[in-house]
Amino acid sequence: xxxxxxxxxxxxxxxxxxxxxxxxxxxxxxxxxxxxxxxxxxxxxxxxxxxxxxxxxxxxxxxxxxxxxxxxxxxxxxxxxxxxxxxxxxxxxxxxxxxxxxxxxxxxxxxxxxxxxxxxxxxxxxxxxxxxxxxxxxx
Length: 139
What we know:
By secondary structure, the protein is α/β, with parallel strands linked by helices. 48% of the residues lie in helices and 18% in strands. The chain has a four-stranded mixed sheet, with helices on both faces.
């Protein structure tokens, strides 16, 4: 299983190696998939552009997921996270940026697996809460 974490922003210092290890533990420990995926850390400006292009929403968001072809299960797809938005959310929630990035990785990962919190009557968010409790850094 190959997991890439790419830091494409310069505003915040992020623990890319620790996030990669977290993503690996999540995927292996949760037993939901042994397929690889990538996490790309970007600025608000970049994620706003992606959000406008792919969702017709002209504002930044915290995380976007781009699943790969469902027939090809050796690679799940890509998760894009705005570090600036994650930093604001971490401050509001009174926890570390690392924890917020881990939560967003969990959220994006579940989307790559086909979950949709807008249509599944809370199933994805229940699973997310369990995975956050079991795998995320506690600060």
